[in-house]
Here is the input.
Amino acid sequence: MGAVEGLLGAIRVVDPELVVEEPSGRATLATGRRRSLLAVARGRMRLRGTDLGPGDALLLQDGGTVPVVTEGPTTVVVARFALQGAAPRLLALPDEVLAPADSEFCRLLIERVADQVPAGSPDSASDVVSARLLDWLVVETVRDVLVARGSGEVADAGVARALAAVHADPAGSWTVAILADHAGVGRAAFARRFTDVVGTSPLAYVREHRLALAEHALLTEPDVTVAAVARRVGYANPFSFSTAFRRHRGLAPSEVRAS
Here is the structure.
């Protein structure tokens, strides 16, 4: 697994809220105090100097509200969400990022939410499929940012070696001491440097990376048993895996698979 893919493996969109708005002329869109993604379903819109047309989407940092200027009848899907990741400092993003042009995830998300939620309705799309499409679109967008700026390369060579080891063998019996050996430094110094560079502790990163890989497998590999997924990500039995998964994801593995 490459460095970028390893970092992306822990990104998760959580608590998504997706609504449909029809701004007219000079208007504002409420993005909330969380991250947001604005996707144009029809019409044209200018936002912070960026022109957006049908199928275009912009990923924004926390904003509250953003001013927009529209041309003609315009419909916008507004997604508000929190973004979790096991490497917050490595995944720092610009204030706004264009989603990949002609993204299939973006097209499907627009179609699904626009069909479900009337424009201006206080209701929001909160079904699993819409949440997954948003999750994949955000990951696709972040991947472009990381590749473009070379964020797969970690400046601290020792931390980079430890990350590469975890990405290559997520089921390994990782301890801080073993990871420090990969980094070539003492345990205390490694733990401090890892947290400074990555933004979380070494073992928290290992846990989050494992659970993200497990969640992906549960959603995309229906023929693989929960026990096999547990072994793949380093849990000795499915019971300890299920307990850890429920504690950190809020759902049992079987509930995720059923969705």
